[in-house]
């Protein structure tokens, strides 16, 4: 996915920097600074893909000579704390071709020349050999004064003013986003870049009703590593790759950034699984499947993402159709049409638990009453339920006691009858 980055920095004498040194380093050339009497030689610098200079139409001829150009910039500034140059740092999409990266960078630089009348020196850099190989970027160095036929004249105060500087930079950020999106569309990429702040993107996502994107954007900005820590982490990552082991951060800031990136990756993975499960569930329901079987198909689609990770990517619909087909046909045995196999399985489980044929249990799950079940199963012989069998066990002692009482009562009645017979006999003999 293409990422957006545009930053604007200033080259200040008060920070011990010079326009000649900055230009020599970015383009990888040798420039002698006449003001300082120093030679800045970066001819051994690697990774520089392209450099070029753009100037206004009426600029003097010497403006195309890089050494003369930046020495004139230094000579035009007389104060000890002067801002001699301004640098626009641009991230270039790795998804587009080298020709398109060069074209959109040239278009952006030309807009700077036309808009502010300054001289522009451009250097396009390849990714660092030990860093992220997608990190194509460009350094666009501009003068802070207008370049006219007589040389450098007035300062570009529109970029320096607190009232207008932010507005101007925001407009250039929008232009850079448009140029990148044009190149991405030309390359057939679906993703687009957005130059707005995270808060503005989040509000726009909420207006569209895209809550997942809004939640992803609602996060703290990533901690900056800094040059020293970034260099240490790059070396550690390259060493881990050469040794075939997992990369582990070596600095505290690196550990924080690495953990945050892993969390964002896990969130994106979870969101992709959720979207796949939702669509699978909807297709299954439209096909006439019940909620249980549709839910099982959705769960199977989400878990199948791990098994398909190392395979060649296929069309989403084809993968979804394959998952749906697996959910309907779990084995090769012929199945009659119209049956719901999730319900049949549930019936078997209910049969073991309820002690009946299972159909009544499923009938009851569908919302039918006990009376309806009685009408549906009618004269079918059913097994006693668990509660009924428990009552039988609990009632057995009581039944035995009642039988014993009845037998004892019968014995007492027999004895009384015999006693009365004896009494009558004895009276008769007297």
Can you summarize this structure?
This protein has 430 residues and is of the alpha+beta class.
Summarize this structure as a short list of keywords or feature phrases.
430 residues; BirA Bifunctional Protein, domain 2; five-stranded antiparallel β-sheet; 9 strands; disordered C terminus
Number of strands: 9
Radius of gyration: 42 Å
What structural category do the secondary elements indicate?
A: alpha+beta
Uncertain segments are 309-314, 326-339, 355-359, 372-380, 422-430
CATH class descriptor name of the largest domain = Alpha Beta
Total domain count: 3
Distance between the termini: 126 Å
**Helix fraction?**
55-70%
Tell me, rounded to a whole number, the average pLDDT.
Answer: 76
**Main sheet, how many strands, which sense, barrel?**
5 strands, antiparallel
In spatial order, strands of the major sheet run: 1-5-7-6-4
Per the principal axes of the C-alpha atoms, what is the gross shape? Answer: elongated
SSE series? EHEEEHEHEEEEHHHHHHHHHHHH
**Tally of DSSP helical segments:** 15
Indicate the CATH architecture of the largest domain: 2-Layer Sandwich
By CATH, the topology of the largest domain is: BirA Bifunctional Protein, domain 2
Strand coverage percent: 5-15%
